[in-house]
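Input.
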Amino acid sequence: MVKSDNIKENTHPGAPQLPGSVGNDLEIPEALKKGVMMTKISDKKEKQALFRIDPDEGRIHYESRTGGIVPIETIKELRTGADCRYYRLQFKLPEDTEDRWITAIYILEGTYKTLHMIAPTRDVFHQWDVALKKLYAIRQGLMNGLGNVEIRRNVWERQYWKGADEEGDQVLDFDDVERLCTRLNVNLTTDQLRKLFKEADTQNRGHLEFEDFQNFVKVLKRRPEIEVIYGRMSSANGGTLDFKEFAKFMSEIQKSTLGTDQLKSIFSKYATPQRTPEAADAPSNESSSAMTLDGFTSFLSSPDNAVFSEQSRPIWQDMTQPISEYYISSSHNTYLVGHQLVGVSTIEGYIRALLHSCRSVELDIYDGDEEPMIYHGKTLTSKVSLRDICQAIAKYAFITSPYPLLISAEVHCGVRQQEKMVDIMNEVFGESLIQAPVEGRPKITVLPSPEDLKHKFLLKAKNLYVVDQLAAVQEQKAAEKAAAQKQAILEAEPPSSTSSSSDDVAAIKEGIKDLKTKWRKMRGKDAKPEKPRVKMSFRLASLLVYTVGVKCHGFSADVEYAPEHIFSLSENTANRLLKASMTELVKHNQTHLTRVYPKGTRVNSTNFEPHRFWAAGSQVVAINWQTFDLGYMINQAMFQRNGRSGFVLKPEALRSGGEDLMKKRTKHFFDVTIISAQQLPRLRDSRGEEIIEKSIVDPFVEVSLHIPDWTHSPFLPESATAAGAKYYPSTDATTTSATSARTVSFSTKVIKNNGFNPVWQEELCLPFDCVGDMKELIFVEFAVRQNGKDDDDDEPIALYCTPLGCLERGFRHLPLHDSQLSQHLFSTLFVQINVRDVE
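Output.
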């Protein structure tokens, strides 16, 4: 995976400027811009096609009747050389093509796609490899939150300059600028636009050169709403924002807890020296510096003012607690990349999940001709070998996170291929695979920590011997309990007055026995079949150490689970447990792992909302990563935390000793002012091209709180509903819809005919209740929508989702994403945030 560590933050005024063209700065060979003939590989055929790179617009172009455009920012991964071996073998191509192979994996119209290219020579391959990885690193750096302001501005200017200069003459006339503003959805009349054009054309040449264009867009991007805030902050100091006023702003408005030295460091990055006569001979420091409007604007949209500051932090939580005290990023049916009934089984699902810090993947293992195969049983999905999947897992498991990977296996194969399965895992995972002999194994009293298990693979599967033992114990205890109850009844019954009554009872019992015998014969069950012996390899059982799969027998005092016992619950079963015994489930999950997985009969692979089960302490809440829906979005938002390690420490209330916190129930208001949006993205067609004629003209913002069912009645005051707040109760799973938590939402008014810089300046107030101060289990969703569309069926224009407990207060810019959670390069939402307690 290409990293973007070479992207440095460079926001303060006076910082050195990048060269005008990002492409020239990267020294993209001219031949790659003009085009190179390469071999394009697909399922259907091999063909020669002209491939070229447009560094300014950030695209790969290739000859195709269906478009042939791959925007760099849509690429999820670049693979080259030996990393493409799986594809070479799949397409049955010679080994000598491998060292000239490039694969780009990207998303278009919500679907993962692959572009396979084979360069004609090693030199051409090297040129493409270097150029693509550099462009990809820059775009990925810009899609990781905010920041890199100078690079972001430079990329924007070159991209839109190139798009507007249709004739390629390096100048823009008024018609070019007018078309560009239509593309940007700027809400200006022709007269207003002509006035700005003339002001930018300082030499009255009738056209704009690049420097003129830069001045033009600077005026176009003017932010009056920030000017108001700046004026308010600086008014006490004669219109100048000095350090004293900046520190006051950070403390009172932004609710910052930073110390003075940290605030001075931030202030100095965005302030400029003030050369007054009194300060002319003084050293440059905060007392002789001030933050201009430009500096203040840069600060507000920088990582120093991020709405989710934890996102940029490395792993910071305590990783030495038992693994049961963490939420674990988990996937369901990881091998599928499409439909549950007819989708494709592939290694791709594992690679995608692992590169996004997933720490629990699933295998459905069946007998193959020679070796075990992975596929969705009793469906038309394709098959992939266990060996291929294990090799992919081994390669990508610890690239994003060093913490243990849980392999959740449903083993449907016979003993012989179970043995093969063990051989393959030992061969591929080696000493990193956790295992211990079945006999003489020391008793486990507490589960190890993620730190203890770094770079380890844990296999989770049902241990059929343990399952039978637990069932036998339960049957014995049930029989003993029934016998004790029967004895108590007999002892409590008065003696019979006549012998005839005893005879009557005996006759009735005999009659019932005869009826049962006849019923079994009618159904062909006159002889109870002997229970088959357990068919499980002892070698396979030796791989089940800290994650031994068992059946859930409830939480009564009669049931005793060892710390290593883990059971899997379907969402329907989990919902029943939440309603019947949530307290017991919370207590169980303090010391044991529980896995929850989506309803199997919902073939469209939609996801439940995982925080419903996280609120009960369940750690391994598995979702379908191939489905980009609300459940997927909430899961990704949760695991952006803690350095994207895939492990997040559970709230204190859900951990051992948190019982008193669970009794704490509070009520609050989420106060958010939707101020403005910047450069909302345009819709794109199936080829990835912007749709100009269907411009985004009437946006509004919908803010939603997704809240677990931790109280019987939600906090929903009449004042909120009267003001326009909408409440949606939680739902259980059906054949078409997934389990949902309760939701409160509020929408702004609609801004007509402006997708470039709409201003709402509208205050919203959303009520919510909380238990145990677990605000990190409430998720906030900001969705920018288009007026006139069906909100339930239509995807939002752009969105942002994060845990409420992670939101910083005050004025913040939210980075906006598409429905697949890829960040838009230039789109943001400007808001003011506060959480208010209700007495």
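The domain at 165-220 is CATH 1.10.238.10 (Recoverin; domain 1).
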